[in-house]
Write a structure and sequence with these properties.
The radius of gyration is 17 Å and the shape is globular. It is an alpha/beta fold. The chain has six helices and six strands; from the N terminus they run βααβαβααβαββ. The two termini are 15 Å apart. It has a single domain, classed as Phosphoglycerate mutase-like (Rossmann fold, 3-Layer(aba) Sandwich). It is 43% helix and 15% strand.
């Protein structure tokens, strides 16, 4: 089973250096055009790897229920019915949603800088990495059941933080976020065979 994971297009928070978390932050015009282009690339990539006799179509599409991912899915994968899944949301940043990172650095001091370094927003009513890991792991275990049931291709629209934790699960190791580039509307291809995952390069 191939799973194609798209990060959402550029959001207003990305453009303005703000915490988005679970907030209803829309795509920018650039983000909308990125989503359309990513959809073209995704469908072409998946179709090239498809060996069936019928025209290619994704068996399932899963989308984070946050506004910016829903907007991306509508533009990238028009015509598909998709399943909203809270487990592939971005980190919750709690009360920081809507605040600019630079303003928070200036006013909240070292506790905030530590939260940023460690991606632990529990002091602000948000999530830490372990909380994100639990929900992303649960999602991927369900995808393993899909593979066992014969599903061949899945598209997922998610967020940088959730995609990072998908990579941790698949590669069974941790690495700094700065060592990978999960850009807006980038496509990460994962493959599950017999319950075992690999990253497709």
């Amino acid at each position: 089973m191939k799973m194609y994971v798209i990060r959402h297009g550029q959001s207003e928070a990305n453009r303005n250096g703000m915490h988005a978390g679970w907030g209803p932050v829309p795509l920018t015009e650039l983000g909308r055009s990125q989503a359309v282009e990513a959809g073209r690339k995704l469908t072409g990539l998946a179709a090239q790897q498809y060996a069936g006799d019928t025209p290619f179509a994704f068996d399932q599409v899963y989308v984070s229920d946050i506004l910016r991912t829903r907007q991306t899915a509508q533009l990238a994968l028009p015509g598909y019915a998709y399943r909203l899944d809270e487990r592939i949301r971005e980190f919750s940043s709690g009360s920081l949603v809507g605040r600019r990172v630079e303003e928070c650095k200036a006013t909240l001091g070292e506790p905030y800088l530590r939260a940023l370094r460690e991606r632990d927003y529990t002091a602000y009513g948000g999530e830490n990495g372990e909380m994100v890991k639990r929900r992303v792991d649960s999602f991927l275990k369900d995808m393993e059941l899909q593979e066992a049931a014969g599903t061949k291709s899945i598209a997922v629209v998610s967020h940088e933080g959730a995609i990072l934790y998908m990579l941790y699960y698949v590669l069974q190791c941790r690495f700094p976020k700065s060592s990978v580039g999960i850009r807006n509307c980038s496509i990460t291809t994962l493959e599950c065979t017999g319950g075992k995952w690999r990253l497709c390069l």
